[in-house]
Structures
1.
Amino acid sequence: MTTTAAALVETLEELDVEYVFGYPGGRVIELLEHLPNSDVDLVRPRDEREASVMAETYGRLTGTPGVLAGQGPWIGSLGMIGQMEAALSSSPMVVLTEASERGEYSTLAPYQQARGDYGGFSLPDILGGVAKEWWFPRTPIETLRSTHLAFKHAVAGRPGPTAVILDGNAITDEVPEDPTPPAWDAAEQTRTWDAAPTAEDVAAAAEHLEAADRPVIVSGNGVHAAQAYDELAAVADAYDCAVVTSYLGKSTYPETDERAAGVIGSFGHEGANRVVSEADTLLVVGCRLNPMDTNWQAPEFIRPDEQTILHADVDTRNAGWVYPADVGLIGDATESLAALVAAGSGENEWAIDRAAEARDWFTAPECEDDSAPIAPQRAAKEIQRVVDEDTIVTADSGNNRFWLLYYLQTPAVRTYFGSGGVGGMGWANPAAVSAALATGKDAIAVAGDGGFSMTMNSVETAVEYGVAPTFVVLNDTSLGMVRQMQGEHEIAGVEFHDTDFVKAAEAFGAVGRRATAPDELAEALREGKAADVPHVIDVRIDREADMAETLASSFYESVGGLHE
């Protein structure tokens, strides 16, 4: 006979799970004690928050669920940041947690009780507010079937997080030899199939694209999720389109390509926003067109009464959600784009020349500024210089991500990812460690000093697990974005003590460098990227460089300014 915990680890092996990101505690200990003798490796950072981000990033980069494991009270609190990001960034994730039950004492308000009984709290209610689906199995066979379904639902349709709450005998008892109903083979039970748009919708969309004089593709995170990069490029070529991306869609298309026009949105490129406003036909792929993407629906930006909108999305609810769509292409982005390539072609004398003009917005005089402290624009360009097709940049929340999306021109697909779902600070550090583990590529985490401080334990995790990301701290000794929102009245809590991140890095076993001038930053980045141990670069940036004033688009300003 086999215990449920052992059988669950066997299930993870059958599903080719490479890593479990987690922290021991509660009933999860009974699961983790079987990992050392399995093909599944545990990555144990210093807390559940970092583990959750690492699992989310693994799912985002690989397209297979990142597995998060830990004790229920902490998965439902510290570990929620990665789950929320997974939900809003469409990253597949499976959460294996538990309710810290205490057997027959569970109705007597025991320590950490999370089943939802009187005197405790309800972990199912907490997870249910974020997860696509969750299960609370009561028997061993239900535990195995629930795990199969969690992996299936995490990738079916629009990807996202799912959860299994392990409880009591349902994880400790032995699995019956001949259960009714049975649990089927894990690989067969978790299979999914890609949906595709109807032939009629494809034909209608192709007809609009062929007739367009100024066609523009808006590429979103759904292209990342489907890894439909080749198909996107093929449609752009077939119908002679300019290509812009959403914030989460950055690096779905090389920004050095002749058709690339940049990133749209409230702090996107002015050139890219203007290209969209001038288009007669928009093909929106895997982008829900959220307020930041649409300049908060500035009336002169996207105009459904004047422009033809073709909206491709894996979820029929998202097509035509924000703006009425003329045609919806419902299905996996790979299937929808491949069908468009086969359905027709078109040409115009507008797209390539217009995209070339738009790319001018990737540069500014400040990008060559030699002054100290370092201009953020120059810092972004120095980072760009070390990014190649085998490098992944993870961008944190705050001013730093907007400087990067504006001035870091990606040379290839899958070279830039940001915390643009829930947008939590502290995401970039554990994301870079996970990216290095998942892909074997160079990873560069970029965060402000606030975000870096939240998860700088990730530097030690990188050292422990033998990967060498470069951690770039754009340091203005403050919560820069919030500080720059101050008007006549000061905002409490925006200034930070000047922490010595060089010493912190050394304490973690990494290399610490401080850069106060552009040439020092350039040298530190080159050395960090080439090294086989993590480097932390404390970059002293000009704190007076106002991100919103510099980067806010004219369309965004037309609706009144800062909504972020």
2.
Amino acid sequence: MDLDAVAAIKGFAINVLQVFALVFAFALVILALYVVYLYLSDISQSKQAIRRNFPVLGRFRYQFEHLGEFFRQYFFALDREEMPFNRAQRSWVYRAAKNVDSTLAFGSTRPLNQPGDILFLNHPFPTLAKDAVPPSEVTLGEGVARKPYSTRAIFNISGMSFGALSVPAVTALSKGAAKAGIWLNTGEGGLSSHHLVGGCDIVFQIGTAKYGVRDPEGNLSDKKLRNIAAHEQVRMFELKLSQGAKPGKGGILPGIKVTPEIAQVRGIPVGEDSISPNGHPEIRDVDSLLDMINHIRDVSGKPTGLKCVIGSSDWLHELCEAILRRGAQSAPDFINIDSADGGSGAAPQSLMDYMGLPLNRSLPLVVDLITEYGLRDRIKIICAGKLLTPSMVAWALAMGADFINCGRGFMFALGCIQAMQCNKNTCPTGVTTHNPDLQQGLDPIDKAERVYHYARNLNYEVGTIAHSCGVPEPRQLRRTHVELINERGVPVPITSLAPEGRPSTVIGTDRTR
């Protein structure tokens, strides 16, 4: 290489270094000006004492607080200590959704002495594979609704509104549910084309704001109700009184998530907070509740039930007594019991943490009560609330549930990482955001397969538990198959704490039991 070429290369390199030096110097000047701006901004504001006393540096506190959620989840928390779902639970769902091997080695990491945990009693002569049968079929609304609904599905998708969930998330749930043969509850946000695209069975939820079936004044519109019922896929209607995340308060959808399409489906203005009333104005007692349920069933011709979180139980006695006065045909076709620890949506912490009964109390309470009143065959029981693993689904069946709904388990199947940003439109996995840049990471075709695999693998393992207990199918599980670890760390029969309910020959009115 001649000297001229070397000189040219050297000159070019010097020029490049000079440009980089200028850019670096310019960046330092911009950074210094930005730090000065932050400093002046911090010392002149009065809303945050940390920023005012420690300008610029105080801002790192809020960044570390935010990043701490992720560091705790991935680096510091043990497998079974996180809330609301620990790593062991999430990992099982992820493996089931990806259809990979879910077996473990070298023993369980679950301690067997934690009060409140459950154990199943294996039978010395378990059900053989050749004797196992599919789950029995259950019919809702038989002899009452013009179009009763029959299904073998045990594990279904709980109510999560379009709006709370993104377009690709709802699309994936619809397609995955159709392939798995389970139903998809719309949540209170109305029925969209994305719910219908997969061809799955639909349960249409009527919330306190009656989105999708409301008139301009917010009252129930029979015309819109008939239009919804005209969809063959819509199999049932669910009248929501309350939900697990916020008993006593209506749904909350921040205005940033109310897109034109969501506003059209709900019948509300674009970009405004969607705040549902905390109750149905026209339902103020059990008689008006039964009137509404029967009206919806008469207009739609399809099974109709109610959803609620159980708190005070007096009204349940009044409800059953009113049904007996009117006749069994006036009863709701199902009661969907939501646990106080349920909820993927936005809610005040005071309600999320302290209001309502958890499912381990409310499920046996309701099952036993309607059994005592002789209505167990008439009213089917659905339940929801953190039931996303086979053991908890099997427990619910043993306690008397006919069906189990799950929301957050299916969110995990869609790719949710428990980032706790469902209400901020910043969900990093595209499940609960309407930001197109974040939604693009959620492929509805791939996630629909994961929804299908999750439902199928969970049902398979619930069947495995049932067979180990000596029964041929999951709906034959009973409380006698379950023991509960007491406060001393010793398993005791769950029937000693919650005996199986029996029909009463005479119904008393004592509310103190």
